[in-house]
Amino acid sequence: METWIQVERLHLGAEAEVNSGFWYGKPAIEKIRQPRTWRHPDLDRRLTKKRMTSEVKLMIKLRAKGVEIPAIWDVDFEEGRIVMERIEGQQLMSFLRSNKQTHHVLEKVGRTIRKLHRQAVVHGDLSTNNILIDQQNEAKLIDLGLANMDYEVESYGIDLHVLHEILRASHPEIDGAMEAVIKGYLALDEEYGAPALAPGGKPPTAKEVVKRLESIKTRVRYHGG
Ligand SMILES: Nc1ncnc2c1ncn2[C@@H]1O[C@H](COP(=O)(O)OP(=O)(O)O)[C@@H](O)[C@H]1O
Ligand SMILES: [Mg+2]
After folding, report:
1. Which residues are registered as beta bridge partners of 22?
2. Is 30 in the pocket of ligand 1 (CB under 6 A)?
3. Which domain holds residue 139?
4. Are residues 33 and 54 located together in one domain of the fold?
5. By CB count within 10 A, which of 80, 99, 126, 223 is most buried?
6. Is the CB of 170 under 6 A from ligand 1?
7. Catalytic residue among 44, 74, 125, 134
8. DSSP notation for 140-189
9. Nearest protein CA to atom 18 of ligand 1, as residue
10. Is 175 one of the annotated active-site residues of the chain?
11. What digits encode the pLDDT tens for the residues 131-188?
């Protein structure tokens, strides 16, 4: 059996080429970092390797902790290539466009984000394209290239604020969309208690983050950005 069989290119951005296909017969996604042509090739390769190492390490750790992200199946640091499990489903953006009953799924989105945050990790790019809804209506996070360990409540507030702004701008018709996300986000701490101590300190509680989100919203309203 061939290792990788490509079906289609999903996306070609400045950062990465994303292809859909099969890895040893299983539905998979291949993500290849685009070389930065303005950079010296040696430096570029070294930086790519460094970034990928931290991204892959983080993803493997998060998966092991039960955070809903794709499994990594293969990595080629020289080529800047990652092969991962393909999540069958759709981007949150298109899910919201094509479904009427969305609050339940938005709560799940909040739960999944909180699961990540409880591991002391901020996503860094929580757009509605980086959240997938699978066929069981479960929420999964992808595109963790900007994710990082963090202990500042502000970073967590900003993570949620990014999603808040996108939901407000692109789905103003959904009443209480962010409130549903927050409901799920808070519910997880109620079920599991305060987050455990991580290697670098204690991640903020869900309540602290939601409180910070509110103050970020106020700040943005008064200062416009
Ligand atoms: N593991 C995956 N399963 C299913 N679809 C994926 C997966 N990874 C990426 N995609 C699809 O490809 C798109 C682009 O991938 P992403 O990792 O977000 O790259 P980019 O950095 O270009 O935004 C996603 O929005 C999603 O639709
Ligand atoms: Mg993306």
Report:
1. 5, 27
2. no
3. 89-223
4. yes
5. 126
6. no
7. 125
8. EE---TT-EE---HHHHHHHHHHHHHHHHHH-TTSTTHHHHHHHHHHHHH
9. 143
10. no
11. 999 999 999 999 999 999 999 999 999 999 999 999 999 988 889 999 999 999 999 9
